[in-house]
């Protein structure tokens, strides 16, 4: 049974489960993910959390709302290099992708021309049409035709943002060893709504609880910081309590520089809970008290993964574009390329703030991100990354 959006005065207020199924209104698969995403997209909407089954939220949202793709694009941000394609025709795109994989060999250029130049919402529509017209999953067909790093970029772009984050986190903790850098990069940089969405997506995709999996693969204070971030409990208002900011700065100083050993609990409580505006004021006050930047103190007082995650939180508070510019530079500097970081950042940020990341990269390293990618990658892998990066100027 499908669902119908119930409106009142032109505003969606809930769902009517009694509408009979039809070909244009697919039902829903994940109520939690649906509720999180709709509330984050349209906070004014009041949703009824009814039992809704089948397909995914994104498919429902795009098919039910005429401007669903536009709303999704707005949610992703306005500072991306990948924009919504004008005169978008999902049927034509699906046909072109099928033709690109037909016969001997694959037309990778045709795949890049479509996948790298459509928004996430538009790619979901292409996937729906492809499955309808050919009875196969586009993701699986592309995975069987492509290989290596190029395949990882293409299939990554076909996922919605929460599902891609969940996929990366799953890969970071499954099997032997743990990719702590991936865990801290994602959890330190995502908003409360994004963390709730990726947590719901993880549960839906893998039938597991993300917090339990992370706790089983990490330990100590590093694990506690990750768990704190997973609660999505950060204050997201913009108010600054001047007295509390001074108190927080003093407590962090007393917990680190002013004593033998470090009371990491104080750092966790302040860095994982306070809002961004407040923390920026705390960092200013800390510099006045300690005579050094909070980052320098963290480097002096901590080590290993705990040092890295606290630094990531501080840097994201100061500037997410600068944080990701540093991640990209780290992935390409010296001999060899850390493709996992390069791919993850390019795929996850290309519709959000890649324009700002490029600006910060040039400011920080004196060279363009475009030139770094061009010099460090090759073939179709390099070509699609350059498309996501956008023009050099």
UniProtKB/TrEMBL annotation:
Alphabetized SMART domains for the sequence: ANX
Organism in which the protein naturally occurs: Electrophorus voltai
Family: Belongs to the annexin family.
GO cellular component: nucleus; plasma membrane; zymogen granule membrane
Keywords noted in UniProt: Acetylation, Annexin, Calcium, Calcium/phospholipid-binding, Cytoplasmic vesicle, Membrane, Phosphoprotein, Repeat, Transmembrane, Transmembrane helix
InterPro entries: Annexin, Annexin_repeat, Annexin_repeat_CS, Annexin_sf, ANX4
UniProt keyword annotation of Transcription present: no
Main location (coarse class): membrane
Bilayer topology annotation: Peripheral membrane protein
Signal sequence range: none
Protein name: Annexin
Domain description: A pair of annexin repeats may form one binding site for calcium and phospholipid.
Transmembrane segments: 44-65
Gene Ontology molecular functions: calcium ion binding; calcium-dependent phospholipid binding; phosphatidylserine binding
Listed Pfam families: Annexin
């Amino acid at each position: 049974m499908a669902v119908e959006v119930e409106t009142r005065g032109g505003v969606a207020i809930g769902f009517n489960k009694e509408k009979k199924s039809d070909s244009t209104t697919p039902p829903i698969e994940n109520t939690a993910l649906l509720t999180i995403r709709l509330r984050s997209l349209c906070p004014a909407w009041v949703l009824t959390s009814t039992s809704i089954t089948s397909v995914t939220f994104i498919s429902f949202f795009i098919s039910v709302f005429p401007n669903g793709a536009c709303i999704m694009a707005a949610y992703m941000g306005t500072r991306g290099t990948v924009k919504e394609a004008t005169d978008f025709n999902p049927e034509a795109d699906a046909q072109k992708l099928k033709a690109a994989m037909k016969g001997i060999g694959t037309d990778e250029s045709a795949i890049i021309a479509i996948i790298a130049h459509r928004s996430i919402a538009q790619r979901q529509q292409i996937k729906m049409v492809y499955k309808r017209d050919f009875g196969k999953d586009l993701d699986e067909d592309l995975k069987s035709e492509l290989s290596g790093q190029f395949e990882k970029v293409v299939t990554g772009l076909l996922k919605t943002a929460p599902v891609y984050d969940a996929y990366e986190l799953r890969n970071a903790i499954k099997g032997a060893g743990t990719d702590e850098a991936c865990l801290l990069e994602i959890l330190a940089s995502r908003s409360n709504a994004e963390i709730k969405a990726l947590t719901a997506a993880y549960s839906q995709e893998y039938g597991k609880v993300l917090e339990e999996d992370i706790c089983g693969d990490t330990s100590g204070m590093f694990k506690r910081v990750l768990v704190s971030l997973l609660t999505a409990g950060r204050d997201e208002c913009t108010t600054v309590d001047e007295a509390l900011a001074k108190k927080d700065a003093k407590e962090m100083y007393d917990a680190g520089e002013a004593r033998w050993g470090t009371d990491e609990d104080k750092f966790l409580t302040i860095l994982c809970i306070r809002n961004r505006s407040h923390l920026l004021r705390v960092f200013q006050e800390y510099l006045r008290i300690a005579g050094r930047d909070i980052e320098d103190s963290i480097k002096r007082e901590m080590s290993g993964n705990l040092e890295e995650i606290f630094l990531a939180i501080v840097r994201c508070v100061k500037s997410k574009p600068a944080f990701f510019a540093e991640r990209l530079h780290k992935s390409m500097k010296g001999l060899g390329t850390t493709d996992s970081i390069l791919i993850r950042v390019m795929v996850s940020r290309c519709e959000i703030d890649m324009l700002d990341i490029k600006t910060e990269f040039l400011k920080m390293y004196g060279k363009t991100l475009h030139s770094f990618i061009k010099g460090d990658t090759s073939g179709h892998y390099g070509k699609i990354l350059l498309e996501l990066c956008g023009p050099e100027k």
